[in-house]
Task: structure prediction
Amino acid sequence: MEEHPTTPLNDPEGTNSADAEKELILRSYKALLRALRPSLGKGDKKTIRLAFDMSLEAHKDMRRKTGEPYILHPLSVAQICAEEMGLGPLAIVCALLHDTVEDTHLTLDDIRNSFGEKAAMIVDGLTKISGVILQGSSIQAENFRKMLLTLSDDVRVILIKLADRLHNMRTLDSMAREKQLKIASETAFLYAPLAHRLGLYPIKTELEDLALKYTEPDIYTEIASKLQQTKRERTRFINEFMEPIREELTRQGFKFEIRSRTKSVQSIWNKMKRQGVGFEEIYDIFAVRIILDAKEEDEKAMCWRCYSVFTDYYTPNPDRLRDWISTPKANGYESLHTTVMGPGGRWVEVQIRSRRMDDIAEKGYAAHWKYKEASVESALDEWIKKIRELLENPDSNALDFIDDFKLNLFSDEIFVFTPNGELKTLPSGATALDFAFEIHTDLGSKCIGAKTNHKLVPLSHRLRSGDQIEILTSNKQTPKEDWLNYVVTAKAKSKIKSVLKEEKRKFADDGKEILERKFKHLKLQLTTENINELLAYYRIPSSLELYYRIAKGMIEIYDLNEFIIDKGTIRAKQPLRSEQQTLEQMVKNIRGSSDMLVLGENLDKIDYKLSSCCNPIPGDDVFGFITVDEGIKIHRVSCPNAVQLMSNYAYRIVKAKWTGQQEIAFLAGVRMTGIDEVGVVNKISKVISSELKVNMRSISIDSNDGIFEGTIMLFVHDTHHLDKLIKKLKEIHGILTVSRIDGK
Ligand code: MN
Result:
């Protein structure tokens, strides 16, 4: 808007600029009449002219902050009501007069005398609303809703108020900064949600974007300019995407219009915040809309036929199908939405609807009832009832219910996509690791994590239909035993097992050598009989497993004291235990509770050491093990060696527990994986040393292909302390997994 000098409109000196202003006002008025033409009845034009003249006269000495004649504001508000909300003559009269009672000499009686009771009531409502809003500096949403309910016996009050706010937001530049902030946040907080509820989507979107522009100008400018920069590329993509569809729809005799709709700046910003990603990683920046010309009785079938044309060319995401034609949203929205995989592995949202449905989506219920009722005014009366029902419903989630409803047609299968857009079918419950093995064994074996829909997730992450997955690998990675706990596909399971077996075999060879040496020393041979005796005693299913455990030190074979050696054969001294005991039972059954070793007190009096295989710390479930020459060693109950020690040397086990004590530091290990970003090591050591004041003994970080694996040994007080540290580390940007090192 141009700045004008603040001269009164009817300046008797009569300058050129006054003439130009009169011209501008007349042009605006004519535009309003043009927008209204479809709903003008007999005598309406005269009534509107009267309202315009009264408003022009009442505001004649006033100017807006922009410097322009005040009358341009009510004219613009009336224009929004007519053009963007589809409202009729009564609303236009009230829009033209909406600020008169509050700001000018006109009274409600003047309005009642000229335009009737209804118009007076609406203008009264508008006057009261602005009074309330001006007074309360921080108005609560709930109060706002109640106030609207009381004041809006006629829904036009709310609609005109929204139009008023929209025009004020469009011209907010000339306001002082603190006023801008107040109006903008009020808009985001109260008016945009209200527009959403009323199904006025374009208005809601514009209000939100304008609010962001003033509350977060840097963010708004950045996103808006990026949208502008990427516009050409987007247009090219949409043309390519639509070309076969356009041809096929034409061939089938459809009459249609194609529009592309870009996501609002506000919703892009929301998504960036919610998913912690940059602008470039928002993949659904636009939607393609097909508007079909169809008779009302044919429109549903035609929309589905159009859907079927899309899915002949592009794979749809079954989880993103929304049928708001069969069950319209509570605010009247009807449309068929789907998301399909377009060229280059890019998701494209497609909205299919009839012209009538599009009118409703753009202009709300006014348009809806226009199709049902003879006149706009009686249509509005119907709408009022609906709006009241909506406003009276305190449960705002009722509206979102259908939105959240997930249509799940194939519950035992999920459909996911490679980065190139290739479709893969997996059983439901499948994880990122399953997906990796589904693509290639090598990819699975080296998998350290994944990105689903551009978001970093661990390899145990359960996938959902429609996810697009990129697998992250590291050459240092090898399959782990616990991977078997979170894969569900037979393919992944068998691959992991075979790799693990291969690895086990290598160790087993060493174990076998160790056992052979031991046996040789005792003049024994590795006969099947002898091996079987060992397997039975240790309850191990195979010789491979036995050798493996020996190599790993999980079975200690010092002197085979538990066996009687006789003429080249061995036999267990004790009969085999008949039932498997749980660890807890074993601990309970070992000696009496009076022999409890209390750790943490008298540290120097009792000769005990914390075992290095599992690094127990206060808070862990622990037990003591009497060693031959190192006194009592404390292990965690979850130590990989624990089962072996407890079952084989029960008589050497001592119950142990911690007392509460804080001052002593215990060594614990933490392993991390993550994305190797600049400064990540710095952040890790900062968390450890400055935030939590923990002493590190060692830190080793291996980085490869942008992924790092690190091990830190540090001193903590107890498990609580350690858990807190792990939680903090997990919060660091780029860190994928953090876990305490168990055992080995
Ligand atoms: Mn106003």
About this structure: The domain at 224-372 is CATH 3.30.460.10 (Beta Polymerase; domain 2). The first strand starts at residue 256 and ends at 262. The chain is about 45% helix and 15% strand. The mean pLDDT is 77.
